[in-house]
Amino acid sequence: MKMQPGRDLKAVFLTVLRVAVGWHFLYEGVSKLLQKGWTASGYLANATGPLSDVYHSLAASPGLMKVVDLLNMYGLTAIGLALSLGILVRFASAAGALMLALYYFAYPPFGASLAMHNQPGVFIVNAQLIEAAVLLVFVFLRDSGYGLQRLLPGFRDTAGAADAPAAADGRRDLLKNLASLPVLGFFGWAAARQKRAYGVDVVSGATIKVGALDIRELKGELPKGKIKNHEISRLICGGNLIGGWAHSRDLIYAPSLFKAYNTEPKIFETLMLAERAGINAINIGFPSNPVLEKYKKLTGSRIKVISQIAPGNEKESLFVNIDKAIDHGVDIIQVQGNHGDWLVRDGKIDDIAKMLDHIRKQGYTAGLGAHSVETLFRTQEAGIIPDYYMKTMHHDRYWSAHPKENRVPFEVDGKRNPEHDRFHDNMWCLNPERTAEFVAQTKVPVMGFKVLAAGAIRPEDGFRWAFENGADFICVGMFDFQIVKDINVAIETLAKLKDRKREWYG
Known about the structure:
- The chain folds into 2 domains: 5-198, no CATH class; 224-495, TIM Barrel.
- It contains 21 helices and 10 strands.
- The protein has helices spanning 5-34, 41-45, 52-59, 62-85, 89-106, 111-117, 127-140, 148-151, 170-177, 180-198, 240-243, 254-261, 264-277, 289-299, 320-327, 337-345, 349-361, 373-381, 432-441, 459-468, 483-495, and strands at 224-227, 230-233, 235-238, 281-284, 304-309, 332-335, 365-370, 388-392, 446-449, 473-476.
- The termini are far apart.
């Protein structure tokens, strides 16, 4: 019996469509099977969709993750084989559509997930949703094209085809129904060559790469302290890498590189990873307020935003930026370090008192930042005591630190000197010993920042020096791939701290 040309063309089209989707499933399944130690835990742990709590609870359970990983690896492979070969097509299509729906709702292309992953031209409808729709067609359509199912009448499900003969009719039909075998073989051969040449690509539907260290490698819980009524992790995120303030000495490309890397989706990914790992606060420059406001609205995050503010200019109110920061929904407000220095340097110390007073009158915790320790001593002598200090705290035992005799008070954030042994955006704590002296006698919490001297000091060294010399909290700029490692270093440092003499004030 011969098929009509129209039906034959329809069967070919359905076969090509089914095999294409089947190969996608098969490749993803086999890729995961071939990767030693593959797991979907990172994918689930960072899910952002409406069912994120369910995905997070799965990621937190080692026992459940074993089941989830097996279902992913073998489920994708089995569905891919069934669709590619044309066996149990209706059942495989239903199972495949369900898996795609689970992937879709882990990172749906709307809300926080859309902002995170920044897929151009994608909103609500993405490749996963389209592929799931294609599979639903095979669930309800009574024809799935050519395949082994047609050759095994007793093995057919109801998707075998109303338009197809009950069994293969002659040699031509046999060849048509076996056509997917050489196609599948060719795809497999090409994939094997790719693996031999480049390794297996497994960044797929159930994989997410968020950092060099997996969140499961955390070595404990990050300790917390208090500033007024705010409970804050001892290690918090710095905002310079987000804002592009690289403090990169004479590496002129670094600020642009940081900005290019830290796109808005990457910022969101980084903050989500930091929060899940135990960091609950970030200290940001004023220009970064809008992106943090957006992040909290889209994700429902409770991260505490500490906003640095500058005084208004001569045409504005002294408090204009304080009020703007409040409008952005920040949690804590502090006078920015360089502006604190300049106000003291220029004899406008009363403006600091007025700004701190205004912050407190609005019901907010008021901090004072400084690069120069002279700012702290002079404000203290004037009776100006903030709710906490934020002070650069790093030693000067690193290669690019210029000689002590050439250091000038208030030169940080000033003009870069062309002479090699003078300030050139290379030091932020010009007098570490005097800084430690001030911190030792103050009775309010101290947050140390620039503790790594903008990348010149290793975390193990910088964290220890800051905590030993009295810092209650440290603020560190971190890329996403550094977060878990830095948290582990902070946990270990705090656990082994022996030479700290100052009591904890936070």
